[in-house]
Amino acid sequence: MYINNNAQSNRIYEMQNRISNNSVNTLGTTIQTQNTTDTVSISNEGLNAKNNWQEISNNYDVTNISQNEMANMVSNLIDNKLISSADSLHLMAPRSMNLDPDVKFDLLATTRKSLVFAKENGGSVEEIKNKERAMDILETLRNLSNKT
User: Fold this and answer.
1) Is residue 70 very low, low, confident or very high in pLDDT (cuts 50, 70, 90)?
2) How many CA within 13 A on the CB side of residue 120?
3) Cα 24–Cα 29–Cα 31 angle in degrees, nearest 5
4) Which residues contact 31 (CB under 8 A, 6 or more apart)?
5) DSSP state of 22
6) Residue 82, SS3?
7) Higher pLDDT, 24 or 55
8) Which of 19, 36, 57, 92 has a beta carbon 3.0–4.6 Å from 144's, enabling a disulfide?
9) Residue 36 has pLDDT above 90, yes or no
10) What is the mean pLDDT of residues 118-144?
């Protein structure tokens, strides 16, 4: 198993540190349980994921970003294996046909409005899921940039 993000590694450590009881008493019947141990390899990408997210969030403001900056940001996220290629397509979708690639806009607010519109107007389950994933990525970047 390869762990590529901080949330996965935290969950593994949490599970390893949980104290378990070796027997359970259910309605007067004692059931013996057995603990097992798994070995997990955490990739360098997984170990560095938090730092990579933080570095990218320091370089880009998702509330004031141009299409060109957004392309660079998405490339950095892909290069660091922090998002999938499908996620990158949803983040990179042009917001307008006549968009000047150097004019800055609020990507987070625009994406949020797009998600609300899809939910209110019968967007497909897949479309809504993809927009929610894009929102999660953008909110993660914004929240990390607020911590510096």
Assistant:
1) very high
2) 6
3) 40
4) 23, 24, 25
5) S
6) coil
7) 55
8) 57
9) no
10) 95
The mean pLDDT value of the chain amounts to 83
Which pair of structure tokens corresponds to residue 60? 């880009």
CB 138 within 8 A of CB 92: no
DSSP bridge partners of 25: 30
Q: Which residues pair with 42 in a beta bridge?
A: 3
For 86, residues 6+ apart whose C-beta sits below 8 A from its C-beta are 130
Q: CA 28 to CA 64: how far, in whole Å? A: 63
**Pairing of β 23-26 and β 41-42:** unpaired
3-state DSSP assignment of residue 99: coil
Q: Which pLDDT value is given to residue 99? A: 81
From residue 16, give the alpha-carbon distance in Å to each of 1, 6, 11, 35, 103: 15, 15, 9, 11, 49
- Are 104 and 66 a contacting pair, CB within 8 Å? yes
Token couple for 76: 């950095």
pLDDT tens digits along 83-107: 999 999 999 887 778 888 999 999 9
